[in-house]
Protein backbone atom coordinates (compact mmCIF):
# COMPACT_ATOMS: atom_id res chain seq x y z
CA UNK A 1 0.00 0.00 0.00
CA UNK A 2 1.35 3.45 -0.91
CA UNK A 3 0.95 6.41 1.45
CA UNK A 4 -1.97 8.62 0.46
CA UNK A 5 -1.61 12.39 0.10
CA UNK A 6 -3.16 14.65 2.70
CA UNK A 7 -5.32 17.48 1.38
CA UNK A 8 -6.31 20.26 3.76
CA UNK A 9 -9.49 22.07 2.71
CA UNK A 10 -10.04 25.41 4.43
CA UNK A 11 -13.03 27.73 4.68
CA UNK A 12 -14.56 30.14 7.15
CA UNK A 13 -17.34 27.64 7.76
CA UNK A 14 -19.27 24.88 6.02
CA UNK A 15 -19.27 26.39 2.51
CA UNK A 16 -16.00 24.76 1.55
CA UNK A 17 -17.78 21.41 1.78
CA UNK A 18 -19.17 22.16 -1.70
CA UNK A 19 -15.58 22.22 -2.98
CA UNK A 20 -14.52 19.29 -0.81
CA UNK A 21 -17.17 16.97 -2.28
CA UNK A 22 -15.85 17.55 -5.82
CA UNK A 23 -12.24 17.09 -4.73
CA UNK A 24 -13.11 13.87 -2.86
CA UNK A 25 -14.90 12.56 -5.96
CA UNK A 26 -11.82 13.33 -8.09
CA UNK A 27 -9.34 11.99 -5.52
CA UNK A 28 -10.88 9.28 -3.34
CA UNK A 29 -7.36 8.06 -2.60
CA UNK A 30 -6.41 11.13 -0.52
CA UNK A 31 -6.70 11.73 3.21
CA UNK A 32 -8.77 14.83 4.03
CA UNK A 33 -8.61 17.42 6.77
CA UNK A 34 -11.45 19.94 6.56
CA UNK A 35 -10.96 23.09 8.61
CA UNK A 36 -13.85 25.48 9.29
CA UNK A 37 -12.61 28.72 10.83
CA UNK A 38 -15.97 29.20 12.47
CA UNK A 39 -14.44 31.17 15.33
CA UNK A 40 -13.95 33.98 12.78
CA UNK A 41 -17.09 33.43 10.62
CA UNK A 42 -18.29 35.22 8.54
CA UNK A 43 -15.18 36.41 6.71
CA UNK A 44 -17.37 38.63 4.55
CA UNK A 45 -17.89 40.92 7.54
CA UNK A 46 -14.17 41.39 8.29
CA UNK A 47 -11.76 43.95 6.83
CA UNK A 48 -8.98 42.89 4.45
CA UNK A 49 -6.30 43.50 7.10
CA UNK A 50 -8.19 41.42 9.65
CA UNK A 51 -8.51 38.47 7.25
CA UNK A 52 -4.82 38.51 6.30
CA UNK A 53 -3.80 38.77 9.97
CA UNK A 54 -6.09 35.87 10.80
CA UNK A 55 -5.53 33.40 7.97
CA UNK A 56 -1.77 33.58 7.34
CA UNK A 57 -0.60 32.60 10.87
CA UNK A 58 -3.52 30.16 11.34
CA UNK A 59 -2.46 28.37 8.15
CA UNK A 60 1.06 28.06 9.57
CA UNK A 61 -0.35 26.31 12.65
CA UNK A 62 -2.51 24.00 10.52
CA UNK A 63 0.39 23.06 8.28
CA UNK A 64 2.49 22.33 11.37
CA UNK A 65 -0.24 20.17 12.88
CA UNK A 66 -1.38 18.22 9.79
CA UNK A 67 1.53 18.30 7.35
CA UNK A 68 -0.67 18.47 4.21
CA UNK A 69 0.69 17.89 0.70
CA UNK A 70 -1.66 20.51 -0.71
CA UNK A 71 -4.08 23.12 0.65
CA UNK A 72 -7.36 24.17 -0.96
CA UNK A 73 -8.58 27.59 0.14
CA UNK A 74 -12.26 26.83 -0.43
CA UNK A 75 -13.34 30.39 0.22
CA UNK A 76 -13.57 33.24 -2.27
CA UNK A 77 -13.48 35.90 0.45
CA UNK A 78 -10.10 34.59 1.61
CA UNK A 79 -8.65 33.47 -1.74
CA UNK A 80 -9.14 36.85 -3.44
CA UNK A 81 -6.96 38.33 -0.69
CA UNK A 82 -4.55 35.89 0.96
CA UNK A 83 -3.38 33.49 -1.75
CA UNK A 84 -0.31 35.54 -2.62
CA UNK A 85 0.55 35.93 1.10
CA UNK A 86 0.20 32.18 1.71
CA UNK A 87 2.32 31.28 -1.32
CA UNK A 88 5.01 33.69 -0.15
CA UNK A 89 4.97 32.32 3.40
CA UNK A 90 4.71 28.53 2.86
CA UNK A 91 6.27 26.30 0.25
CA UNK A 92 3.47 23.80 -0.45
CA UNK A 93 0.90 24.21 -3.26
CA UNK A 94 -2.23 26.28 -2.58
CA UNK A 95 -5.28 26.02 -4.81
CA UNK A 96 -7.70 28.91 -4.42
CA UNK A 97 -11.37 29.49 -5.16
CA UNK A 98 -12.00 32.74 -7.04
CA UNK A 99 -15.06 34.05 -8.92
CA UNK A 100 -15.55 32.13 -12.19
CA UNK A 101 -15.99 35.28 -14.26
CA UNK A 102 -14.13 34.07 -17.34
CA UNK A 103 -16.22 30.93 -18.05
CA UNK A 104 -19.44 32.75 -17.12
CA UNK A 105 -18.80 35.59 -19.58
CA UNK A 106 -17.65 33.15 -22.26
CA UNK A 107 -20.95 31.31 -22.14
CA UNK A 108 -23.47 34.14 -21.57
CA UNK A 109 -25.67 34.67 -24.61
CA UNK A 110 -27.37 37.86 -23.41
CA UNK A 111 -23.96 39.29 -22.35
CA UNK A 112 -25.37 39.99 -18.87
CA UNK A 113 -23.66 38.21 -16.02
CA UNK A 114 -24.04 38.68 -12.27
CA UNK A 115 -21.45 37.78 -9.65
CA UNK A 116 -23.02 36.82 -6.33
CA UNK A 117 -20.46 36.84 -3.51
CA UNK A 118 -19.85 38.19 -0.04
CA UNK A 119 -19.54 41.94 0.41
CA UNK A 120 -15.79 41.39 0.81
CA UNK A 121 -15.33 39.40 -2.41
CA UNK A 122 -17.17 41.86 -4.65
CA UNK A 123 -15.12 44.77 -3.28
CA UNK A 124 -11.75 43.12 -3.92
CA UNK A 125 -9.27 44.51 -6.44
CA UNK A 126 -8.71 40.86 -7.46
CA UNK A 127 -12.36 40.53 -8.53
CA UNK A 128 -12.30 43.84 -10.40
CA UNK A 129 -9.18 42.71 -12.27
CA UNK A 130 -10.95 39.49 -13.30
CA UNK A 131 -13.74 41.60 -14.78
CA UNK A 132 -11.28 43.92 -16.57
CA UNK A 133 -9.42 40.96 -18.04
CA UNK A 134 -12.19 38.47 -18.75
CA UNK A 135 -15.59 40.19 -19.11
CA UNK A 136 -15.26 39.86 -22.89
CA UNK A 137 -17.70 42.72 -23.46
CA UNK A 138 -20.31 41.44 -21.00
CA UNK A 139 -22.06 43.73 -18.56
CA UNK A 140 -21.08 42.32 -15.17
CA UNK A 141 -23.17 43.15 -12.10
CA UNK A 142 -21.45 42.67 -8.74
CA UNK A 143 -23.83 41.66 -5.96
CA UNK A 144 -22.45 41.66 -2.42
CA UNK A 145 -24.72 39.57 -0.25
CA UNK A 146 -24.62 40.35 3.45
CA UNK A 147 -26.41 37.28 4.78
CA UNK A 148 -26.54 34.44 2.26
CA UNK A 149 -23.51 32.57 3.69
CA UNK A 150 -25.05 32.63 7.17
CA UNK A 151 -28.40 31.49 5.75
CA UNK A 152 -26.64 28.55 4.04
CA UNK A 153 -24.94 27.61 7.34
CA UNK A 154 -28.31 27.74 9.10
CA UNK A 155 -30.02 25.58 6.47
CA UNK A 156 -27.26 22.94 6.52
CA UNK A 157 -27.41 22.86 10.31
CA UNK A 158 -31.15 22.12 10.17
CA UNK A 159 -32.64 25.57 10.83
CA UNK A 160 -35.28 26.45 8.26
CA UNK A 161 -34.63 29.60 6.23
CA UNK A 162 -37.55 31.53 4.73
CA UNK A 163 -38.00 32.06 0.99
CA UNK A 164 -38.22 35.80 1.57
CA UNK A 165 -34.82 35.92 3.28
CA UNK A 166 -33.16 34.17 0.33
CA UNK A 167 -35.12 36.12 -2.28
CA UNK A 168 -33.95 39.44 -0.80
CA UNK A 169 -30.28 38.45 -1.23
CA UNK A 170 -30.83 37.09 -4.71
CA UNK A 171 -33.00 39.81 -6.29
CA UNK A 172 -30.19 42.25 -7.31
CA UNK A 173 -28.64 39.55 -9.54
CA UNK A 174 -31.53 39.71 -11.95
CA UNK A 175 -31.03 42.64 -14.29
CA UNK A 176 -33.07 43.64 -17.37
CA UNK A 177 -36.49 42.43 -18.41
CA UNK A 178 -36.68 41.67 -22.09
CA UNK A 179 -36.03 38.00 -22.83
CA UNK A 180 -32.87 38.38 -24.92
CA UNK A 181 -31.40 41.21 -22.81
CA UNK A 182 -31.59 40.08 -19.22
CA UNK A 183 -29.16 38.25 -16.94
CA UNK A 184 -28.71 34.68 -18.07
CA UNK A 185 -25.70 33.62 -15.97
CA UNK A 186 -24.97 33.97 -12.24
CA UNK A 187 -21.52 33.21 -10.80
CA UNK A 188 -21.70 31.56 -7.38
CA UNK A 189 -18.73 33.46 -5.97
CA UNK A 190 -19.02 32.12 -2.44
CA UNK A 191 -18.60 28.45 -1.66
CA UNK A 192 -21.58 28.52 0.71
CA UNK A 193 -24.08 29.30 -2.04
CA UNK A 194 -24.14 25.92 -3.82
CA UNK A 195 -25.48 24.55 -0.51
CA UNK A 196 -28.64 26.51 -1.35
CA UNK A 197 -28.69 25.82 -5.08
CA UNK A 198 -32.11 24.13 -5.14
CA UNK A 199 -33.62 27.06 -3.27
CA UNK A 200 -31.84 29.60 -5.52
CA UNK A 201 -33.22 27.90 -8.64
CA UNK A 202 -36.71 27.82 -7.19
CA UNK A 203 -36.69 31.45 -6.08
CA UNK A 204 -35.04 32.97 -9.15
CA UNK A 205 -37.44 35.24 -11.09
CA UNK A 206 -36.36 33.51 -14.31
CA UNK A 207 -34.08 30.58 -15.15
CA UNK A 208 -30.35 31.28 -15.40
CA UNK A 209 -27.16 29.22 -15.50
CA UNK A 210 -25.46 29.03 -12.10
CA UNK A 211 -21.68 28.77 -12.34
CA UNK A 212 -19.97 26.80 -9.57
CA UNK A 213 -16.18 26.51 -9.96
CA UNK A 214 -15.85 23.44 -7.69
CA UNK A 215 -15.43 20.82 -10.47
CA UNK A 216 -12.67 22.91 -12.08
CA UNK A 217 -10.93 23.25 -8.70
CA UNK A 218 -11.09 19.48 -8.23
CA UNK A 219 -9.44 18.94 -11.64
CA UNK A 220 -6.68 21.36 -10.73
CA UNK A 221 -6.06 19.59 -7.40
CA UNK A 222 -5.94 16.22 -9.10
CA UNK A 223 -3.48 17.48 -11.73
CA UNK A 224 -1.19 18.89 -9.04
CA UNK A 225 -1.24 15.68 -7.00
CA UNK A 226 -0.28 13.56 -9.99
CA UNK A 227 -1.04 9.89 -10.41
CA UNK A 228 -3.39 8.28 -7.92
CA UNK A 229 -2.00 6.14 -5.12
CA UNK A 230 -2.62 2.51 -5.81
CA UNK A 231 -3.96 0.00 -3.33
CA UNK A 232 -5.89 2.51 -1.23
CA UNK A 233 -9.63 2.00 -1.34
CA UNK A 234 -10.52 4.96 0.81
CA UNK A 235 -8.47 7.06 3.18
CA UNK A 236 -9.77 8.82 6.31
CA UNK A 237 -11.19 12.27 6.98
CA UNK A 238 -11.13 14.75 9.82
CA UNK A 239 -13.25 17.80 10.50
CA UNK A 240 -11.92 20.65 12.62
CA UNK A 241 -13.77 23.70 13.89
CA UNK A 242 -11.50 26.48 15.15
CA UNK A 243 -14.11 27.27 17.82
CA UNK A 244 -13.53 23.72 19.13
CA UNK A 245 -17.25 23.10 19.15
CA UNK A 246 -18.46 19.55 18.69
CA UNK A 247 -20.13 19.56 15.28
CA UNK A 248 -22.90 17.01 15.86
CA UNK A 249 -23.54 17.04 12.11
CA UNK A 250 -22.01 13.71 11.12
CA UNK A 251 -24.91 12.33 9.11
CA UNK A 252 -25.29 15.63 7.26
CA UNK A 253 -21.58 15.94 6.59
CA UNK A 254 -20.80 12.39 5.52
CA UNK A 255 -21.98 12.81 1.89
CA UNK A 256 -19.57 15.71 1.39
CA UNK A 257 -16.73 13.42 2.44
CA UNK A 258 -17.74 10.77 -0.11
CA UNK A 259 -19.48 8.66 2.52
CA UNK A 260 -16.54 8.22 4.86
CA UNK A 261 -16.92 8.55 8.62
CA UNK A 262 -15.63 11.90 9.79
CA UNK A 263 -13.41 12.01 12.87
N1 LIG B 1 -17.39 30.61 1.98
C1 LIG B 1 -16.86 31.92 1.90
C2 LIG B 1 -16.61 32.33 0.44
O1 LIG B 1 -16.47 31.52 -0.46
C3 LIG B 1 -17.48 33.08 2.61
C4 LIG B 1 -18.36 33.06 3.75
C5 LIG B 1 -18.01 34.09 4.80
O2 LIG B 1 -18.41 35.26 4.70
O3 LIG B 1 -17.30 33.68 5.72
O4 LIG B 1 -16.49 33.49 0.16
TrEMBL record:
Pfam families: Asp_Glu_race. One of its GO terms (molecular function) is glutamate racemase activity. The keyword Isomerase applies. Keywords: Cell shape, Cell wall biogenesis/degradation, Isomerase, Peptidoglycan synthesis. Gene3D superfamilies: 3.40.50.1860. Its EC number is 5.1.1.3. The active site is at 75 (proton donor/acceptor), 190 (proton donor/acceptor). Belongs to the aspartate/glutamate racemases family. This is Glutamate racemase. It comes from Bradyrhizobium stylosanthis.
